[in-house]
Amino acid sequence: MLETTPRVAVIPGRRTALIALAASVFSVAALTFAPAVHAQDKTSIKVGIMAGEEEDTWVAVKEQAATNGLTVETVIFNDYTQPNEALARGEIDANAFQHEPYLENQIATQGYKIVVAGYTALWPVGLYSKKHKSLEELPDGAVIGVPNDPSNEGRALRVLEDAGLIKLREGAGILATVADVDENPKKLEIKELDAGIVGRAIDDLDGAVVNTDWALKSGLTADIQIARETIENNPYRNFIAVRAEDKDAPWVKKLVASYQNEAVKEAFDRIYKGSGVSAY
């Protein structure tokens, strides 16, 4: 039968004190020199993503992460303001839902110390038309709808500028508005509408600049898209974001590699059917 009470040798006098002192010094030394567990040692992380098709994409990312020795748990959000707040608070380790103009605005207004870890995909904004099959067919005075929120309106106007339909004033930046249109040779009537309405109003417009998410919800398809923003150096590419303190951690490199590979690209293409493109 095993004893449940350990036997303690009693050492009298000064020797007891010396041994106790030595033990305490050893304990302090052990605490001082014990290896600390930092974020870079992580083998299991939480990543915030938005509800919807991204959940399917990240199933493939999780599979790739497992082969890299990293366990990924996805945390699903329905509000775009939540993932950065959760990341800043340490409730998640990374997120993947935003582009740089959005993050820059969040940093300016909220003071977040969040950085880009690696790019993921782009959902190109397009100019759609049910009445005209090409840019050349757009008549003078055509009515074009654009979203009226600051980030998306500037992006939509860039699509029109890249298509040669308008020219924005120098220095207009990514938050350009209709007031920044410097040249409008076709005398387009640019209507600012709510982002959720502009795609659905296309029957009453000659064309509408709509982001991918709202295009899908509005039933707009690639076959009626007559212009599209380019991918190269596009500030609206989405990315994996982490806290600045973690940017060089080994697990971050593993996470990015788990997204940026052919297996995930194939899954992404299958899920988004051309409405989004890999952009890394």
TrEMBL record:
<keyword id="KW-0560">Oxidoreductase</keyword>
<keyword id="KW-0732">Signal</keyword>
<dbReference type="GO" id="GO:0051213">
    <property type="term" value="F:dioxygenase activity"/>
</dbReference>
<keyword id="KW-0449">Lipoprotein</keyword>
<dbReference type="InterPro" id="IPR004872">
    <property type="entry name" value="Lipoprotein_NlpA"/>
</dbReference>
<keyword id="KW-0223">Dioxygenase</keyword>
<keyword id="KW-0472">Membrane</keyword>
<feature type="signal peptide">
    <location>
        <begin position="1"/>
        <end position="39"/>
    </location>
</feature>
<dbReference type="Pfam" id="PF03180">
    <property type="entry name" value="Lipoprotein_9"/>
</dbReference>
<dbReference type="GO" id="GO:0016020">
    <property type="term" value="C:membrane"/>
</dbReference>
<keyword id="KW-0564">Palmitate</keyword>
<comment type="similarity">
    <text>Belongs to the nlpA lipoprotein family.</text>
</comment>
<protein>
    <recommendedName>
        <fullName>Lipoprotein</fullName>
    </recommendedName>
</protein>
